[in-house]
Amino acid sequence: MQPYGNPKVKIKHKKLPGRVVVIADRCKGCDYCIDYCPRDVLVRSEGFNTKGYHPPKVANEDACTFCGLCERICPDFAIYLEHENTQRITIQEPRRKQNIEFFPSPLRGEFFMQGDIACAEGALAAGCRFFGAYPITPASEIAEHMSVVLPRLKGVFIQFEDEIASIAGILGASWAGRKSMTATSGPGISLMNENIGLGMMMEVPAVIVNVQRGSPSTGLPTSWGQSDMMQARWGSHGDYGSIALCPKSCQEMFDLTVMAFNYSEKYRLPVFIMSDGIVGHMTEKVVIPPVEKLKLVERKYTRKTADKYKPYEAGPDLVPEFAKAGDGYRYHTTGLTHDERGYPDMSEEAHQKLVNRLVNKIKAHADDIIILEEKDTEKADVIVISYGITSRLSAPAIAIAKKKGIKVGSLRLVTVWPFPEKRIRELSKRVSGFVVPEMNLGQIVLEVERCSGKNCTVAGIGHAGGGIIRTEDIVKAITEAAHGKKK
Ligand code: SF4
Ligand code: SF4
Fold it and tell me: 3-class DSSP state for residue 453?
C-alpha cells in the first residue's frame, strides 16, 4: 500500500497550502467524503446542521494531503479546499515597465488522482490561466476542475455556449498573452475543426485535449475509444504540421499536458492531447513536482524594435516571434494567406511560402518532438506498435507471446503526430511483422503500412470502442506475424 493511502503511515509534508472547509448547512450527511478520504481526516460530527444531518468535521488535519477527493466526491458541494495563495510571484514585464502578479499552482506531492483532473493540474502547473470549454463526457471533469481552481489562481474559466466559441475563446486568450486550453471529446473536436485551422494559420500556442470516446457522431458519450486519431492530423482543411501526444496513465495526463504547453509555445501552434475515456476516468497515483522543478517553455517575445518587427517573419527555426498586444508593436493577423507583416496576400508565391513553413516547422523539428517508448525492439521478430490505453492492453499479450518463445518487442508512440516515419521504416527492415492494436477500425495502422512498404507484414487489430481489445486477439496476431502471415 502506498503511504499516502494508509493513514497509519506517517508522512512528512510541508505545511498544507490551505485548509479543508465544510459548509455544514449544505451537507446531507451521506458520509461520502468520510468514506472516500484516503487518510481518515474526516469524521462525522456529533452536532446537527439545520437540515438535521451530522456534517463531517476535520479531525486529523495533519494527515491531510490536500488531494481534493472530498471536494470532488461531495454531491452537494458542501466541502471544499480553500487555498492560501501565499506563493504569489511577481513577474517583471520590461517593455511595459509593469509588474504582473502570478499565482503558481500550489499542488505538489503524491496524489490518488483521476486522469482528467491530472490533465487539468498539468495545465495549471504549466501556467495555463485561461480555460474555455463546453462540457462533454468523458472530458467534463477537466472543465469542472478548472472552474474550481482557476479563479483561485486569478485565472479565467469560461463555459462557452458551444465548442466553436470555446476554441475561438482560447485562441483569443492566447493571442492576448495567456496560456490557454480547451478540453472536449469527438463531437466537440468536429465542431472546433475550422477554428483549429485558424489557430494553425495564425500560429497560436494553445492546448486542445481530446478525451476520446466511441464515435462517429454522438456515439458512446460515457464510454471510450481512439476514434479521432486522424482528426488530430487532418481534421481541419488544408496542410499544416500537427503535434499530438497520447497519455497512457494518469501520471502522463499530467506530464504530457505540461509537455503539450511547452511544444505549443516553442513551435507556436495548438497542440493535441489525445487521451481516451479510460485514461481520463481512471484514478491512479500521480506525482506532482513543485512548479519550480518543472521545465516550462515561455512565450518567445521579440527583442526587435517596433520598426524592425514583422509578426510572421521566421528565423532559421521557422517559428516567428510574438509581440504582445499593447507593447507598441504594430501587427496584423488573419486566417487568410498572409505575408510576413500579417497582411493578406493572395499570391501563389505567398501561399506556397506560408503553407510550406507551417508544415516544415514541425517536420524540421520532428526529432525533438517525437517521443517513443521502446522495449525489446532490437532483437524482435514482431513488434507491437501501440499508443495510449492500447499499450496497456498489449502488455499482457506481449508477455504471453514471449512465454510461447516468440521474440516480441513493443513500440509505444507517446508522440503520434508527427508520425515517427524514420524509426518505423528502420524497424520494418528488421522484423517479420508489426501488430497494431487500436480502439478504432484502423487509423494509425495505415501510417504503419505506409512507412513499412513491403518490408514486413502489418496486422491491424481494430475495435470500435466501448469495450477493450481481447488479449487473445493480440496474441493470435503476434503469433501469425511471427510466422510471416499477413492478417
Ligand atoms: S483533501 Fe484528501 S486527504 Fe484531505 S480531507 Fe479531503 S479527501 Fe481527505
Ligand atoms: S460528501 Fe458532502 S453531503 Fe456527504 S457528508 Fe460529506 S460534506 Fe456532507
Answer: coil
Q: Is the CB of 113 under 6 A from ligand 1?
A: no
Q: Which region among 104-113, 181-190, 309-318, 437-446 has the lowest average model confidence (pLDDT)?
A: 104-113
Contact 229, 440 (CB under 8 A): yes
Rg (CA), the chain: 24
Q: Express each pLDDT in 194-235 by its tens digit.
A: 999 999 999 999 999 999 999 999 999 989 999 999 999 999
Is the CB–ligand 1 distance for residue 56 below 6 Å?
no
Mean pLDDT of 409-432: 97
Q: Which helix (H) or strand (E) holds 411?
A: strand 408-413
Q: Going from the N-terminus, what domains does the chain have, and what CATH number goes with each?
A: 3-83 (3.30.70.20), 89-293 (3.40.50.970), 372-482 (3.40.50.920)
d(CA 463, CA 178): 39
Pocket test for ligand 2, best of 23, 25, 26, 33 (most atoms within 8 A of CB): 33
444: Cβ below 6 Å to ligand 1?
no
Strand 179-184 versus strand 128-133 pairing type: parallel
For 156, residues 6+ apart whose C-beta sits below 8 A from its C-beta are 129, 130, 131, 150, 173, 178
Nearest to 384 by CA among 331, 441, 437, 438: 437
CA-nearest of 137, 289, 321, 148 to 219 is 137
**Residue 89: what pLDDT?**
59
Ligand nearest to the CA of 5: 1
Rounded CA gap, 93 and 102, in Å? 12
**Which residue, judged by its Cα, is nearest atom 4 of ligand 2?**
30
Distance, in Å, from the CA atom of 225 to the CA atom of 441, rounded to the nearest integer, reads 10
Q: What does the block give as the cell for 378?
A: 532490437
Helix 163-175 with 186-202: angle, nearest 10 deg: 30
Q: For residue 65, what are the CA distances in angstroms to 23, 70, 116, 117, 401?
A: 20, 11, 19, 16, 42
Pocket test for ligand 2, best of 20, 28, 44, 45 (most atoms within 8 A of CB): 28
Question: How far is residue 107 from each of residues 158, 291, 347, 407, 464, measured CA to CA in Å?
Answer: 22, 9, 51, 43, 37
Listed in sequence order, the residues at least 6 apart from 52 whose beta carbon sits closer than 8 Å to its beta carbon are none
Q: What is the pLDDT of residues 429-442, one digit of tens each?
A: 999 999 999 999 99
pLDDT at res. 483: 87
Q: Rounding to the nearest 10 degrees, give the CA dihedral for residues 188, 160, 122, 6.
A: -100
Please enumerate, as own/partner, the contacts of 402-407 that have beta carbons within 8 Å and a separation of 24 or more. Answer: 404/475, 404/479, 406/381, 406/382, 406/478, 406/479, 406/482, 407/376, 407/379, 407/380, 407/381, 407/382, 407/482
Residues with Cβ within 8 Å of 450's Cβ and at least 6 positions away in sequence, in order, are none
